[in-house]
UniProtKB/TrEMBL annotation:
Protein name as catalogued: LYR motif-containing protein 2
GO annotation, cellular component aspect: mitochondrion
Family: Belongs to the complex I LYR family.
Residue ranges that the Swiss-Prot or TrEMBL entry lists as coiled coil: none
InterPro entries: Complex1_LYR_dom, Complex1_LYR_LYRM2
Compartment annotation: Mitochondrion
Function: Involved in efficient integration of the N-module into mitochondrial respiratory chain complex I.
Keywords carried by this UniProt record: Mitochondrion, Transit peptide
Domain Complex 1 LYR protein: start-end pairs: 33-75
Tree of life domain: Eukaryota
Primary localisation category: mitochondrion
Lineage: Eukaryota, Fungi, Dikarya, Ascomycota, Pezizomycotina
Source organism (scientific name): Penicillium malachiteum
Amino acid sequence: MRPSLSALAAVSRSQPSKLKKPAISLDHFIQRQRVLALWREIVRAIHKIPPSSTREELQSYARAEFERHRAVTDVVS
């Protein structure tokens, strides 16, 4: 590595983060991505249903379930 790059790397590590929330762990990040992928899959499946009251009910149910579990922070493999 060039000396200038190693100096920049050393400087950037010592500065505090500008993010307000602490960084999440890798396991938490992976689980979050899985949840988002599941949400997208559910939304796509619901949109394949012809417009009806059933479709609206499924949309509201899926959203309510995801909102209900929004604050869950424990990561289970």
